[in-house]
Amino acid sequence: MNLLFTKRRLTLFLMFSLSTFLIGCAATQVALEKKDLKVQTKMSKSIFLDLDNQIETSAFIQVKNTSDKDIDLTNALKQAVRKQGYTLVESAKEAAYIYQCNILYV
């Protein structure tokens, strides 16, 4: 019984070692193939609003940060919008203008 237990442990150890080796080789191959991978991020085109016929001045601001840096521009953006004469609201349904910003790269 002791010999059977040892053979089973040895078999499991060899299977684990082989699978780890094969997975490591596959990961190394992918890393070597993709070592010069260049990612170019592009945002959509800007939208310019016609402010000459502006009747309602309520605005909703939503800022997302998808960069790898910890940065918060929400308060600065709210102050800039308030200086332009807009009233900030808490819901997008109540707003005449919706500002949605995404910080992609810093």
Which ranges are low-confidence, i.e. pLDDT below 50, for 5 or more consecutive residues? Answer: none
SSE pattern, N- to C-terminal: HEHEE
Tell me the fraction of residues in β-strands, as a range.
Answer: 15-25%
Distance between the termini: 64 Å
State the oligomer. single chain
Write structural notes for this entry.
With 106 residues, the protein is α/β, with parallel strands linked by helices. The chain has helices at residues 2-33, 74-83; strands spanning 58-65, 87-88, 97-103. It has a 3-stranded parallel β-sheet with strand order 2-1-3, with helices on one face. The N and C termini lie far apart (64 Å).
Task: Jot down its keywords.
2 helices; three-stranded parallel β-sheet; 106 residues; 16% strand; 40% helix; alpha/beta
Brief summary:
By secondary structure, the protein is of the alpha/beta class. The protein is built from 2 helices and 3 strands.
